[in-house]
Amino acid sequence: MAFELSEDQLKTAENELKKYLPMSQQVYGFLVIRNRVRSDPVRVLVDRWPQFRVIMCKPHGEQKSDLFKDALLFATDAAVLEEILSKSSVFDWSKYFCVGTSVSHTEIFKAVASAKGVPCKRVAKCYLMTLEDVSRLPPVDSSGISVSSLDESHIGLVNQTWKFGKVDVAVGLIRNMIANFPSCCVLDAEGKPVSWILTYASGAIGMLYTLPEHRGKGYAKILVSSLAKRNHALGYPVYSFIGEENAVSYRLFANLGFTEDPSYREAWFVVNEFQIFP
């Protein structure tokens, strides 16, 4: 039903996914980075080759912390997707997992979960916002501000402020992001981060946060602009997912030149959430 791609096939799949942008953005972005950076092990599976209809990026679940690293999925054929979810062993529906994919697959996930008798819910629904031309970023004044990158000593701080964090199993995800992908932060006079933004394994930028006592100083604008330029220079796509309820972040990214694709929404589905959040 599904088989794993080789290193050479991953490069071919990256080029193939460009044809389906923006719908394939997250899986495409993941392969762009995966083909250039070696981080945590991930299996990339397809239903057939080379004309695949379903492609999935699935982290290894060797440790409990690995379960918090989302699987990513892109499909051009809903019927094939439903068959794979229902009949293959790609996902163990008796355990916790989270999948990021198109919101258009909502009914498929609900139906398969219902048939298997397990709880499944959508935990996020987001706008896809991309920056097509980095050179058109508006100028930002960072004079007198210390901008750096996050390091491993900052994992706990990021985890405690991320809305999906505050649990031990999120630490592995954040550690992987800080160790392997670009990040930016503003440091105070004592060298401690007061505002930061990270890059996910898919290339999406996010986890943007500023400590309450440092808000209103323009730090978020500086960090989004800085990380966008850094990722672009590395050849990564520059984009972000903004929750539909997050009007503040939407305005920030829009004012920096990011544009929303009105035809597409990304969603995250969680199965057996009680195993992580009892």
Automatic annotation (TrEMBL):
<protein>
    <recommendedName>
        <fullName>Glycine N-acyltransferase-like protein</fullName>
        <ecNumber>2.3.1.-</ecNumber>
    </recommendedName>
</protein>
<keyword id="KW-0012">Acyltransferase</keyword>
<dbReference type="InterPro" id="IPR016181">
    <property type="entry name" value="Acyl_CoA_acyltransferase"/>
</dbReference>
<dbReference type="Pfam" id="PF08444">
    <property type="entry name" value="Gly_acyl_tr_C"/>
</dbReference>
<dbReference type="InterPro" id="IPR000182">
    <property type="entry name" value="GNAT_dom"/>
</dbReference>
<dbReference type="InterPro" id="IPR010313">
    <property type="entry name" value="Glycine_N-acyltransferase"/>
</dbReference>
<dbReference type="InterPro" id="IPR013652">
    <property type="entry name" value="Glycine_N-acyltransferase_C"/>
</dbReference>
<dbReference type="GO" id="GO:0005739">
    <property type="term" value="C:mitochondrion"/>
</dbReference>
<feature type="domain" description="N-acetyltransferase">
    <location>
        <begin position="145"/>
        <end position="278"/>
    </location>
</feature>
<keyword id="KW-0808">Transferase</keyword>
<dbReference type="InterPro" id="IPR015938">
    <property type="entry name" value="Glycine_N-acyltransferase_N"/>
</dbReference>
<dbReference type="Pfam" id="PF06021">
    <property type="entry name" value="Gly_acyl_tr_N"/>
</dbReference>
<dbReference type="GO" id="GO:0047961">
    <property type="term" value="F:glycine N-acyltransferase activity"/>
</dbReference>
<comment type="similarity">
    <text>Belongs to the glycine N-acyltransferase family.</text>
</comment>
